[in-house]
Every structure is written in C-alpha cells, then in structure tokens.
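User: Predict the structure for this protein chain, please.
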Amino acid sequence: MTATLTKAVGPPAAGTVAHKRRARRRGRTIALLFVLPALLLLGALVLYPVLFTVGRSFFDASGTSFVGGDNYTEMFRDPATLTALRNTIIWVVVAPALLTGLGLILAVLVEKVRWATAFKLLLFMPMAVSFLAAGIIFRLAYDEDPDKGVLNAAVVGIHDAFQGTSSYPTARARDGQGLTQGTDGSYRTSSSVSPGDTLSLGLVGVAPKELPQEARPAQEAAARQAGADELRGVVYLDFTRGGGGKQGVVDARESGLPQMRVEAVRDGKTIASTTTAADGSFRFTGLDAGSYTVTLPSSNFAPPYEGISWLGPALVTPAIIGAYLWIWTGFAMVLIGAGLSTLPRDALEAARMDGANEWQIFRRITVPLLAPVLTVVFVTLVINVMKVFDLVYIIAPGPVQEDATVLATQMWLVSFGGGNDQGLGSALGVLLLLLVIPAMVFNVRRFRGSQR
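Assistant: Here is the predicted structure, written as structure tokens:
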C-alpha cells in the first residue's frame, strides 16, 4: 500500500516537464509576436526620437560639430529661455491648482443640480474643440477693439455705464479764436471775462454725423445777451456743412455742442460749473463781480475707453491660462465627479446626523476621501501644462510672443521658427523631458498603488 502511494506522488515524467516548458515558450513567442508591432511603433515613435534628441543636443546648429554641454550652458544664458522657464513654472503652479479646485467645486455642486447630466455635458463640450480652434476663438475674444473682442466690449459697456464717456474726443479749438489749450488737454478763454459778458466758443474736429441726436442750431442762443449778474455763452461747432459761413461767427446752420461741461474758474479754483444745453448754450448766475476764466475741462475731449489690453505683455500669460481653463475644467470635473460618486454615503449621512454642516462635511470628509483622485487629476494636469504649445503659439500676438513663450514653444521657435538651431532646440527638448518624467513616474506609481 505504501509503495503504491509513493509511486502515485513521485516526480513527473521527463516528457511531461519538457512539454510544459515548450508550451510556455510557445506562449511567450506568440505573445511577443502580438506585442511586436506595438513595440516597433513605440521604438520608432518614442524611443528613437528621445535618443536622437539627446544625442543631437550635444552638437552645434548644423549638427556636424560636437560641442558637448555648450547647448545646455547657452540655454540657461539665453533670456528668452529663462522667460520660457519662468512662464512654464507659472503654468505648472497656477493652472493645475485652479483646474483641480474648480473641478472639485463644480463636481460637488453638480450633484445638487437637477439637470446634472446636461450641466456636465455643457462643461465638457470644450474638450471636443481642438486647441487650434480654441486658440482662434480666444484670440478673437481677447481682441483689444471693443467692436471685435467680446471681453473688451463687456468691459467698455460696464465702464461707460458707471463713468460715462466723452462725446467729443476729436474736438479742438481753432487757433486765434479766443481759446487756449492747457497741458492737461482742456481749453480756456485766452482773456478774462466778467459777469455780463456773452461768449461764443467755437470748436472744430467733430463730424456732423457724430453730433448727438439732440443737438440744435446755436445761432439763437448766441444772440441772447447776458444779464448784469450772469455769465452766458454758447459752445458750438464752427463748421457749416456744404461750405460757407465765417470763422468765429455763429452761422444759422451751425450746431451747438450739447452735454459739454463748462467751468467758471477764478484764482485757480472752480467757482461754478454747468453743462451745455441742446443748442450749446450755458450760463452762470450769482457770480461775484470780478474776472473769471471760462474753461472746457479735458474730460470733454477724453478719448473713449478702449478696455483692457488682454494680450499685452503684462496679461498675456494669465489670458492664455484662462483659455486653458475653459477647455480643461470639464475634464477635471468629470474625473473628480466619478470619484465623488464612489464615496461611502453612510459616512456623509452619519456626519449630517451628528450635526455637521455642509462646509464641515466638504472640508473634513469629502476632500480627504477624494485626496487620491485629486492627486491624480493634479499630476495629470501638471504633465499636460508642461507640454502646452498650441494655445500659446496661436493666442499670443507676434510682438508679445516672447513674453508668453513656454518651453514647448521656445523649443519650436529655436529649432524651426526662425532660430534654425536644432542643437539648442534639442537641449530644450531634453530639459522638458527631464521636467515631465518625475510627474509621470509619480502618476504611474499612484495607478499601481490604487490597483493593489
């Protein structure tokens, strides 16, 4: 009985072991054959370019002379590269943090919205727009001309609603017609005036079609005489449509300039102020006897408010980051929303039953439980912003391209966009790769940890 058992559990036959080994080898070979096309593509499209770029970075612009680390030294001496590095740091610090925060807030709020799916769809739709199209859209939106740029149109509308705007930015006085221009752009009478005087202040430079609709002929107002205790006058357009008329004289067809601010000044102080009527007339009453200067303040001739220079050197990088946020906020919201849907609801309900308000639940329960998801989203966006190219290249105008450049655009500009120094461009590419690798490694480890 013992011999029979020993025989049954003894070592397997040599033929069986060899057969299993052959089967394993055959399985590995088949697997390798299936993976081989992907490995070839990976080697051709990723590994070879990386190795070639690293090697090319040690040669000069022509690629014929070995220069060692000169390209890397030159890279950190070039002001444009330092600007690109600074802007890349701004992108890495600002954009992922804002996107992660916005995505978290929107994901939490969307849960409380009745049409949550439609809202998510609207926010995610910009992801379907290419960076090229998004860049063109925001280049137009940021246009400085309020007639083209929607943002400046809104800014100008709000500004004019609260502060108003000048109706006569192009108006000016004729030389020798009794008005002198001050250093601040205002106009004042060349000689002193007194109560009882009547003034005719003629201006030119205003097209008849640009006159306010309420403007009326000024001749009748100019004919009125001032009383003994008042100072009267008229501000008019000293131009007759179709020709004719006489300079310095209010003719029958010449229009008054309404809504023009007029001040009576004495010893450098404004004693009284008023606004012209539809026919351009004005008057000051109750003035003390003495000499005055009548002034048309510079606010009458201020150029119209043109809005904000979104694509100027100071704001071009924040403006481009704003466009990036528009595209990627939906991505962050959907990923964080997916993590939010897996949270244990019993913990949230228990906190509510214990008297915790929504802010305490959000800060002490929701955010800590979502920390792994938030980390993955943040690191993924860090990798993405390091490679941003399209938006910067398209949105930033030529004159400020250097102020908005990041490492990816600087690498292209140095290599192909006019610099034609592919040695220095390759060094920039290696620097960008070295900056991206730690974030990629961190993300891969996070994925592996979550799988365990």
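Residues 172-301 form a domain with the Immunoglobulin-like fold (CATH 2.60.40).
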